[in-house]
Amino acid sequence: MNRRTFPVAGAVAVLTATALGVPTASAAPTHAGRPDAVQGHLDRLVSDQGFPGALASVRGAGHRVRDYTAGVGDRTTGRDVPTNGTVRIGSNTKTFTAVVVLQLVGEGRIDLDATVERYLPGMVRGHGNDGRRITVRHLLQQTSGLPDYDEVLFTGPQDLVDRAHAYLEPRSLVDAALTRPSRFAPGAKWEYSNTNYVLAGLIVERVTERPVGEEITRRIIEPLRLRGTSWPGVGEQRLAGRHPRGYVAVAPGAPWVDVTEMDPSFGWAAGQLVSTPGDLRTFFEALLAGRLLKPAQQAAMMRTVPAPEFEPGGVWAYGLGIARHDLPCGGHAWGHGGDIQGFETRNLATTDGRSAVVAVTGLPTSLEMTEAVSDSVDAAICATPR
Prior knowledge:
By secondary structure, the chain is of the alpha+beta class. It contains 13 helices and 19 strands. A 5-stranded antiparallel β-sheet has the order 6-5-19-18-17, with helices on both faces.
């Protein structure tokens, strides 16, 4: 559920609307006699990069929404990829969690510059990790210096398959991270760690006295009518609704292993949600339009620090649970992205109304595969006139 958790060169690299048209790989739409650029990128994700399937939702000029698919949704049966199907969205969950925290800040129930110790006394201790020095803002901005529990729980690519059904409680994720030394002094630099967002989720639960998944549902999913988005319950391993199968390969060229049914608890507030490309696009559109946060919290969320390793390519800066990306065609867009067993999702949205979400049904086994997914989102945004 890390934004980019995938095997690279045989080792685990822990880096992470209604459709108006339904184009498929065999019937790409055209505009003014030209092939559709988004469909072309999705087709190449399958033909050139080897992903089993891909699906996308794009809002373009005139607010027109178009959904796309490519490849197969089930490698055994050859079933088509369902249009706007349900996928696991991994670390896109972080943006949902950050919104809930910032809503609570706007309600005066959480202080961004208060320490983790205030809300979770004694929880963060050991090996130089100290909740008395780490603030809520540090957690959301990925500047806490806390180690990532992924690096403890997933030590080899086979773990992505072997531990797919493991149930892990949030506190056990934090405890695993705290067996490693602090990476740096809080606020000294930026470094991605899923541990930050598990702690953010625990703070939400301490303040509200309700499950974080319930708060995400009540505050975001239901108001935005995201009917394809849900927080899996404890022990829930099956994907609801129409969905493609999700796959993992433990090394480049290795066979794809079906991991559609898995326990996403190791992601929790950092990566547990399931959604559809259309719902995820709607969420980011609403967020950028200021529909979810008060102005002060919106401004805080968009205040960024450089995040040079957020993705393997491009220029990125990280706010509070959202990242800003310099587009190759000029200007910038906002999004996050997420990886979890079976699925990788990348997305971007602009303040002028353009948005795109691309999901593939297998974790990349190379940086080239990851870059190709990100490039397809860039292409979808840049192909749309501003």
